[in-house]
Design a protein that fits this description.
By secondary structure, this protein is mainly α. The protein contains eight helices and no strands. The protein is 77% helix and 0% strand.
């Protein structure tokens, strides 16, 4: 059980959630999308939200700004969250168009607002669960996609709610967060996605 709970923190890492949201869209959209375009978009998102942050992690670690990938203190989280906000802005400006793929465009706008909210809380010395923010945002995006495209993905939605519980249990088990930090993280991930629905649903 110990290994299973710890596994949740790694498989559902917040860095993977933006890419997961993009994959969910292309898997469930009933629209025809050229396969080459899908590959290009997924590749771009993977580089911007996964590869570049990993490179910055090693840079920040070598400079002594952060100690580990777990970002245990609010002080360690400031610069990584600032970088993440900038990277989300790059995606919004350069990767997805609000007219061609409004679903993904506003998904990343919502994700940006979640990152800004987490950053503001960090500045106020409040630590919230970035893992919970990520999986809650992806879950809400899947729910809204099912409503938008009128498709039955109830089984997948159930799986994602299990993922939310898995992440929360994992973070508690590892003593990374308390209940309040997880609850705040859940709503910070969920609420911006709900707000963005008004612009594209």
């Amino acid at each position: 059980m110990n290994h299973f709970l710890r596994l949740g923190s790694y498989l559902l890492h917040p860095l993977l959630m933006p890419l997961l949201g993009v994959l969910l869209y292309y898997i469930f959209t009933p629209r025809y999308v050229d396969l080459e375009l899908v590959r290009a978009k997924v590749f771009a998102v993977a580089i911007i939200t996964l590869i570049i942050p990993i490179i910055f992690f090693f840079l920040l670690k070598s400079l002594g700004i952060i100690d580990s990938i777990h970002l245990k203190t609010t002080k360690e989280r400031k610069v990584p969250l600032m970088i993440q906000c900038l990277l989300f802005l790059v995606i919004i400006k350069m990767v997805f168009d609000p007219y061609e793929t409004p679903e993904l465009y506003y998904f990343f706008v919502g994700t940006l607002f979640s990152a800004i909210a987490a950053l503001l809380l960090v500045i106020l010395k409040v630590k919230v669960s970035l893992h919970q923010i990520g999986i809650a945002g992806a879950t809400m995006f899947l729910i809204v996609l099912s409503v938008h495209f009128k498709i039955n993905v109830l089984m997948w939605i159930s799986v994602f709610f299990f993922f939310n519980g898995w992440v929360a249990s994992s973070r508690l088990h590892m003593n990374s967060h308390n209940y309040l930090e997880l609850i705040i993280g859940f709503f910070i991930g969920l609420i911006p996605q709900v707000i963005m629905v008004n612009f594209w649903l």
